[in-house]
Amino acid sequence: MRQIFIIPVICYLALLAEFCLFNLFGRWGDPHLLLLVVIFFNLYSGIRFSLWAALWAGLFKDCFSTMPFGTHIFVYIVAAYFSTFIRRTYYERGSDGSKLLMVSAVVTAHALSMGMLHQMVFEEVKWWDVWSAVWFPEWVITTLVALYVFGKLQSLARSLRF
Hints:
The chain is built from six helices and no strands. It is mainly alpha-helical. The protein is globular, with a radius of gyration of 15 Å.
């Protein structure tokens, strides 16, 4: 029950950290922390809390987005279900390499789905630009900080006893 109240706070703090890191370091210093929060709650607590985190992460991201409202909620929920699929079929519990592969796959699926939704709503998307300017920096920096963020979230979860 405590997680239900803590997850929105964690998502809000992750959004603030993303915003600050993007303003300080630009595209190459901006890990996708909200996506890491969704993946962490999927690994730590299961799909229900991952969906709750996805809802809050998408809601906070939609508040500041130019996409139609609900786009980010949809994409984060897809990421939660995709990470559940990976956890059930390919994930090896306790393996750092498996966590990194999951993060890589979910970041790739996130970039692909956001590109497709942007193409559906606005205009034709230049996919080379999506892969080189959006996906690659996001994939590199998110994969680099994933284990650190998971460790900090796990210590926070243990200290809050959920």
